[in-house]
Amino acid sequence: MKQQPGPTTEAPEAQAPAEASSTTLEQKRVVNTEIPGPRSRELHEHRKANVPNGFGITLPVFMEAADGGILRDVDGNQLIDMASGIAVTSVGANHPAVVAAIKAQADKFTHTCFMVTEYELFPKVCERLNAIAPGEHEKRTALFTTGAEAIENAVKIARSFTGRSEVIVFDHAYHGRTLFTLGMTAKEAPYKTGFAPFPEHIHRAPYAYPLHWRTGAENAASEALAAFEALIQRIGPDKVAAAVLEPIQGEGGFIVPADGFMAGVREITKKYGIVMVADEVQAGMGRTGKMLAIEHEGVIPDLVCTAKALAGGMPLSAVTGRADIMEVVGAGGLGGTYAGNPLACAAALAVLDELEKDDTLLARARRIEEIIRQELQPLVSQQGVVAEVRGRGAMMALEICHPGTNEPDAPTTKEIASACHAQGVVVLTCGTHSNVLRLLPPLVIEDELLIDGLRVIAEAIQGVS
Ligand SMILES: *Cc1c(COP(=O)(O)O)cnc(C)c1O
User: Fold this and answer.
1) Separation of 38 CA from ligand 1 center, angstroms?
2) Left, alpha or beta for 97 (phi > 0: left; psi -120 to 50: alpha)?
3) 282 lines ligand 1 (CB under 6 A)
4) What is residue 65's three-state secondary structure?
5) Hey, where are the domains in the chain?
6) For ligand 1, atom 10, which residue shows the shortest CA distance?
7) pLDDT digit of tens for each residue in the chain (465 aa)?
């Protein structure tokens, strides 16, 4: 990326064309102070006096600018972004085309509510998503605001279509924090602690997690599918409305399911008339090197939920799927005050243009996987703490276990993450047992910066091994 002269405060018309790089921050890690620095510490005290502690924090550092693969904090440190605000800023946090689209729309109007009066941007986004979702059948898309809202609406639509009540989800699943999606989410602490009782009619099946499958990775797909079908039989096939699952599990540990598992879920759901919902909220929109992660499996789900990277940081989510299913809900049954907000739709169209342009960003995701494997695969050993490097595209993870075993080691994972943070690399952890280090760099991160970040991670791991 090239340096752009001056700040990006011109009118939208004067914005750099989408092809040009937006880079305004030097793509270089800079650590001037302790992290968090003195100004961040001060601001964090102010936050503590005003914001409840329930909002956890990975790294209490306040940002003043973000660009490409860099987050610059209020103390002048430049951190390498391996989080993308949890898989959101795939095209970067200030992409000129996205910024220009938001500014141009803000000059026209910010809101009408699509259920009151219409605007063209909404169906335009839907048309694009209908074309992206797998399958040649006719499709419709409903826009919402958050990922959890998309999942809840997918369940509503599936219940309405099937006239059935029960929902099947999987071990390690994460579907959101609203009460119904929290019931669907697997991990207890911190997400569910203190919030019971959860909604009923939710059932959990095993997910084909190769590394931890008791009888060996080679049996994961077939045994998980047998358990899934047995669960359907136990509930009663004519009661199950939907099976909801992530094509690569996110918060649950960046788990790529065993080969054949997704295809098997498709076959079984088809057999019993169950709506298959792919939760692509984290893995979708180019993150894995394909527009949707389910494309790696050659599977056509009935409904697809997208959000996070869809609108480059603006809140927007979608349910896309078979027209015959989507059209079953009566007028007024779907919606939301902010659903498909015009600024978010304008941003989404710009993001989609970027993602679909010559495959460049999808190729970047695949290149990021190559670099990560090249740098971090050598750390996997019987004597070391890295049990596995896994993932697809720019959604990669290291599972940290006690050496020579598959026993999760959460304290060491935390120690590695803290060491990275201190050196100016923003990494996240995840996993049911909090022992997975996950890497979600923006797709626009430069090779050199990425490699610098990965070497910091490798050093941190060697430091604890
Ligand atoms: C983040 C996430 C959600 C919830 O999205 P929100 O926008 O936070 O409500 C749902 N499913 C998956 C897989 C996610 O990663």
Assistant:
1) 33
2) alpha
3) yes
4) strand
5) 18-94+359-464, 109-355
6) 175
7) 444 444 444 444 444 444 445 568 999 999 999 999 999 999 999 999 999 999 999 999 999 999 999 999 999 999 999 999 999 999 999 999 999 999 999 999 999 999 999 999 999 999 999 999 999 999 999 999 999 999 999 999 999 999 999 999 999 999 999 999 999 999 999 999 999 999 999 999 999 999 999 999 999 999 999 999 999 999 999 999 999 999 999 999 999 999 999 999 999 999 999 999 999 999 999 999 999 999 999 999 999 999 999 999 999 999 999 999 999 999 999 999 999 999 999 999 999 999 999 889 999 999 999 999 999 999 999 999 999 999 999 999 999 999 999 999 999 999 999 999 999 999 999 999 999 999 999 999 999 999 999 999 999 999 997
Task: Give me the helix-helix angle, 96-108 and 342-356, nearest 10°.
Answer: 150
**Residue 379 CB contacts under 8 Å (≥ 6 apart), including other chains:** 386, 389, 398, 458, 461, 462
Atom of ligand 1 nearest to the CA of 148: 9
Whether the model pTM is above 0.85: yes
Q: Does domain 109-355 have CATH number 3.40.640.10?
A: yes
Say how far residue 87 (Cα) sits from the centre of its chain: 5
- Judge: domain 18-94+359-464, CATH 3.60.40.10: no
User: Is the Cβ atom of 147 under 6 angstroms away from ligand 1?
Assistant: yes
